[in-house]
């Protein structure tokens, strides 16, 4: 009986270590850009732990990188079912709608993410972008302001707030674009040269 207990203990350790190794390998493949391999190892990990929230979310992101958007969305929705407070899953699900030019539903998902963490500059920026694209300029401006207040180095928020100010003939647009340029946002220098010189 003693030997059976020891054998069982080592078997559990071996399975746990192997499972952890597969998740680590999956993350390594994801970080190196080999998304097919990443999916393969996330699948292996999920065979052992089918409700592992992080693995499902990361697999969804890998599917997204591979352009397999339906599979990605399925994973994001699984994550939301497992943990309705997973901000990343709402942001990723919102990006799906944004990519499809369904800005109303994108804003709906981004707002859920923002409400989970009102200090998130990223969530505020994405919400502002969705409002901006759907023509809700006052709401867009409000959330660009929030994004910048939450992170004074958010170049994307500066750039798009500046563009919106220029479009609305409001002062300060070029200052915002200059800030985005100073922070190093790609395309900000071109936009500044086109509209602010």
How would you summarize what this structure contains?
This protein is 80% helix and 0% strand. By secondary structure, it is mainly α.
Please tell me about this protein's structure:
TPR repeats lie at residues 19-52, 53-86, 87-120, 121-154. The chain has 197 residues and is mainly α. The protein has 2 domains: 14-153, Alpha Horseshoe (Serine Threonine Protein Phosphatase 5, Tetratricopeptide repeat), CATH 1.25.40.10; 154-197, no CATH class. It is built from 11 helices and no strands. α4 packs antiparallel against α5 (87-99). The protein is elongated and about 60 Å long. 39% of the residues are buried.
What is the CATH top level name of the largest domain? Mainly Alpha
Instruction: Report the span from N to C terminus.
Output: 84 Å
Indicate the low-confidence ranges by residue numbers: 1-18
Radius of gyration: 22 Å
**Class computed from helices, strands and strand pairing:** mainly alpha
What oligomeric state is this? single chain
CATH topology of the largest domain: Serine Threonine Protein Phosphatase 5, Tetratricopeptide repeat
Estimated share of beta-strand residues: under 5%
- Which superfamily, in CATH terms, is the homologous superfamily of the largest domain? Tetratricopeptide repeat domain
Count of beta strands = 0
């Amino acid at each position: 009986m003693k030997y059976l207990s020891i054998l069982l203990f080592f078997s559990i350790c071996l399975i746990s270590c192997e499972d952890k190794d597969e998740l680590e390998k999956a993350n390594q493949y994801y970080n190196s850009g080999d998304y097919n391999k990443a999916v393969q190892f996330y699948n292996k990990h999920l065979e052992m732990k089918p409700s592992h929230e992080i693995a499902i979310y990361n697999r969804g992101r890998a599917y997204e990188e591979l352009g397999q958007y339906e599979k990605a969305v399925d994973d994001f929705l699984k994550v939301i079912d497992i943990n309705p407070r997973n901000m990343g899953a709402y942001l990723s699900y919102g990006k799906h709608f944004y990519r499809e030019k369904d800005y109303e539903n994108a804003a709906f998902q981004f707002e859920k993410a923002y409400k989970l963490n009102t200090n998130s500059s990223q969530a505020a920026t994405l919400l502002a972008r969705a409002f901006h694209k759907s023509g809700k300029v006052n709401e867009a401006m409000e959330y660009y302001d929030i994004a910048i207040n939450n992170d004074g180095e958010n170049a994307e928020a500066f750039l798009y707030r500046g563009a919106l100010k220029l479009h609305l003939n409001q002062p300060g647009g070029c200052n915002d674009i200059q800030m985005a340029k100073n922070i190093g946002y790609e395309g900000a220098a071109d936009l500044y040269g086109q509209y602010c010189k």
